[in-house]
Amino acid sequence: MRGFGAVAAQRHAPDGLLTTVDVESEHQRAAREAFTDAGIATTLPGDQRLRVEVLPGSRRAYDLVFVDADKSAYTTYHEQAVRLAAIRGVVAFDNALWHDRVATTPPANAER
Length: 112
Fold this sequence. Notes:
The protein is of the alpha+beta class.
């Protein structure tokens, strides 16, 4: 279910501000539907520019920045996530661990 993580986060911090951005219009539609189905009022932006273009304009500080995006742009997202995180904030990335280890380029002979 698309939007499940965002719905769960909002339920656990109902007074918190949740900002979600996605370049895929189908994902945006699914997220809106998930929020509606969960009974959570929301206004999700319809901005479909690439997130690496949008994030530098944000000036808000977040307690949690979670990135699940184009893996080839993670370096850029990391720079922006660290900038957007509040003091003592948490920055987390999807797929950062691989078999309980920090993800790195696997050796050529690694089993998958």
